[in-house]
Write a structure and sequence with these properties.
- It is a single chain.
- It is globular and about 45 Å long.
- It has one domain (12-221): Vaccinia Virus protein VP39 (Rossmann fold, 3-Layer(aba) Sandwich), CATH 3.40.50.150.
- It contains six helices and seven strands.
- Residues 5-16 have low confidence and may be disordered.
- It has 222 residues and is of the alpha/beta class.
- The protein has a seven-stranded mixed beta sheet with strand order 3-2-1-4-5-7-6.
- α3 links the parallel β4 (116-122) and β5 (142-153).
């Protein structure tokens, strides 16, 4: 995989984050990693099975998916929250994975066209300002036949208690979790993004965090 940047690195102002929320999310996901892994493990094992030596991840956070990369592999990490970086570096060392950490937004990944075999994400597309632009970027950098593998939470069906909870908690949830939206139809976004094929599994997780219960997991192929 050719991981040279196609343009100069953006300035720090491109990543202006609320410091308090950035630190909170770094701590929250570090502490919640065992629980989230237990909750999502079955689908992650299926979607992230047999990852190649080099992988690009959008929003790796504190490194929850490093356990699925082969030892000695390389992760190109697109992570704008600098408060995640220390734990991410430590987790990469522990996993024996090389880390190419890039502090930039997923709307402008900065890798060459058709240079990547695999891109992954988990619990990330909900936080992005423009998922369609990000999916276009993923398509741009993937080689012919390359895959985008994802685990994401999505909007529940209209009229259900879960959808009502997602709507009621919309603003406090988004404020706490850096813009996270519980009401996005990401399955439609995936199918509309122009991939050659998209395979999606819809499922529910069993957790007391009701707005978090509805998920999709799948593979989009370029």
């Amino acid at each position: 995989m050719d991981i040279q940047a196609t343009d100069s690195a953006p300035s720090p102002t491109d990543f202006e984050l609320h410091a308090g929320r950035g630190r909170f999310n770094a701590s929250f996901f570090r502490l919640m990693d065992p629980y989230l892994e237990w909750t999502l493990r079955r689908h992650k094992r299926e979607v992230f099975a047999s990852l190649p030596h080099a992988v690009v991840e959008i929003g790796p956070g504190v490194g929850a998916n490093l356990r699925y990369l082969p030892a000695g592999g390389t992760l190109v990490a697109i992570e704008p929250n600098r408060y995640m970086h220390g734990r991410l570096r430590a987790a990469a060392r522990q996993a024996g994975v090389g880390l190419d950490l890039r502090e930039r937004m997923a709307e402008k990944i900065g890798l060459p066209d058709h240079s990547v075999d695999t891109v992954i994400s988990s619990l990330v597309l909900c936080t992005l300002q423009d998922p369609a632009t990000v999916l276009a970027e993923v398509r741009r950098i993937l080689r012919l036949g390359g895959t985008f593998r994802f685990i994401e939470h999505v909007a529940a069906r209209k009229g259900t208690p879960t959808r009502a909870a997602q709507r009621i908690l919309r603003r406090p949830w988004a404020w706490t979790f850096e813009g996270c939206s519980r009401e996005r139809d990401l399955e439609h976004s995936m199918r509309a993004a122009g991939f050659e094929s998209v395979v999606i599994d819809r499922y529910r997780v069993h957790t007391p965090f009701l707005p978090f219960n509805t998920h999709i997991a799948g593979v989009a192929r370029s």
